[in-house]
Amino acid sequence: MTWGPFQLAFPWIGGAAAIALLILLFATKLLRGELTSSRWRDPVWISWMATVVYLLHNVEEYGIDALGHRLSFPAALCANMRLPPYPDCPMPPAFFVAVNIPLFWVVGPIAALLSRRHPLVGFALYSVISVNAVVHVVAAVATGTPYNPGLLTAALFFIPLSAWVARTFFGRGRLSYRAMPLIVVWGVVLHAFLIAPTFLFVNGKIGEPVLVWSQIVNAALLLLIFWFAERWHGGALARQMQGHGRA
Fold first, then answer.
1. Rounded distance, CA 123 to CA 118, Å?
2. Alpha carbon 75 to chain centroid distance?
3. What is the distance between the alpha carbons of residues 142 and 135, in angstroms, rounded to a whole number?
4. What does the alpha-carbon distance between residue 29 and residue 80 come to, in Å, rounded to a whole number?
5. Cβ proximity of 240 and 120 under 8 Å
6. What are the backbone angles phi and psi of residue 121, rounded to the nearest 5°?
7. What residue segments make up the domains of the chain, in order of their start?
């Protein structure tokens, strides 16, 4: 399998978009939802940060990693599945584009735009971020290797940002704690739905079009699940908690 120009360029395009978003986030008020509090306590602003950090994560996984290697994540995936390295690895480059473009170029910004009126939807991408951070750390521990592609940005951005979101935006006077299991569980489901089709593909159970479309559906489901969850039981998960107990 050979990589086309866009398939090679997409992490760098996303990285440039991340830099542009960072300028807007820190130098303007265009992506603010609340002007009376710190940016870091603004749910709209923090929703946009989810897209930014994952676009930077893409640069490490698909652009150039901390060791100076290109396309490190696809190479690691092929190795972990005991497949030959590229160009002989059968995993199509279109699969990796389908994993990332719908989620982080489309769903992430849509969730951030909706976050002004739908705060739980705005945190949808944190389901991916929080679980992906755990995946990178567990992979490093399980294999005994100090580094895997994506671990650096997971450690620098994903872990502290996930912890900040959990501490700052959930609890008394904020979103219900009952929304937090949804974020974690759907992050696990999303990753399972990412990995399972790859095994089906390499074992000849599905073809490339189904493999690619499975990831487009995966991205759409993330947005839909959080959209419907916000309406569950009259908005119980998105409603601010009152008093000193847990909702």
1. 9
2. 20
3. 10
4. 44
5. no
6. -60, -35
7. 5-234
H-helix or E-strand containing 235? none
How many angstroms separate the CA atoms of 44 and 206, rounded?
39
Contact assessment for residue 115 and residue 109, using Cβ atoms and an 8 Å cutoff: no
Cα 179 from Cα 227, distance rounded (Å): 12
Q: What is the pTM of this model?
A: 0.92
**All residues at 6 or more sequence positions from 46 whose CB lies less than 8 Å from its CB, including other chains:** 40, 122, 161, 164, 165, 168, 169
Q: Report the phi/psi class of residue 144: left, alpha or beta, with left for phi > 0 and alpha for psi in -120 to 50.
A: left
DSSP string computed for 61-72: IIIB-TTS-BSH
List the structure tokens of 138: 């567990």
Query: What pLDDT score was predicted for residue 177?
Result: 85
- The answer, yes or no, to whether the previous bond of 160 is cis (omega within 30 of 0) is no
Burial of residue 142, with CB atoms counted within 10 A of its CB: 0-12 exposed, 13-18 middle, 19 or more buried: exposed
Calpha distance 50→222 (Å, rounded): 14
Q: Render pLDDT for 97-128 as a digit per residue (tens, 0 to 9).
A: 999 999 999 999 999 999 999 999 999 999 99
> Mean of the per-residue pLDDT values for the chain?
93
Backbone angles phi, psi at 25, to 5 degrees: -70, -40
